[in-house]
# Entry
Amino acid sequence: MKRLFALIMIALTGVAIMMIPPPAPVEAQGGSTLCNDIAVVSLASGTTVVALSGRGINSLAVCGFVLSADTLATTAVIKSGSGTLCGTGTISYTGAMRFVDEGNISFVRDTPLLTLGSTPGGTATPDLCITSATGALTGFLIYGKGN
# Structure
C-alpha cells in the first residue's frame, strides 16, 4: 500500500512539473528581448576599447562577460562614459580586476547586471568600455539593446 501511494505521488509530481510554464524572457522597453547579443572584445596591454556603443539607442543591458588574460599580472576595468574611449563622464563599474595564473574572469546571469540608458533630459546612452592596465585581454560580453 505504501509503494502504491509513493508511485501515485511520484506520478502526480511529474504531471505538476510538466504543467509549469517556462519563464518569460526579460523584455526591454518597446518589447525587444534583452541580452540576446554577444560582443567580442580584444585589447592589448595598456589600452581601452569601446566594447558596446550606446550611440543611437535608448538603453544597453549587460547580462554577463567572460574575459581571459595573457599574463599573470593582467588587470581589467569595466566602465562607461561618452567621448573618446569613455573619457567624459566616466563611471567605473569594477575596480581593477586581477587575473590569476593567466586565467579568466566571468560573470553571467539571466537578468541584466548592468543597464545603461538615456535620460528624459536628453543625455544619450553612454558607451561601455574595457580598460586593460597590464596584459592583453580577449573575451565577450552578453548584452541587449532597447530602442
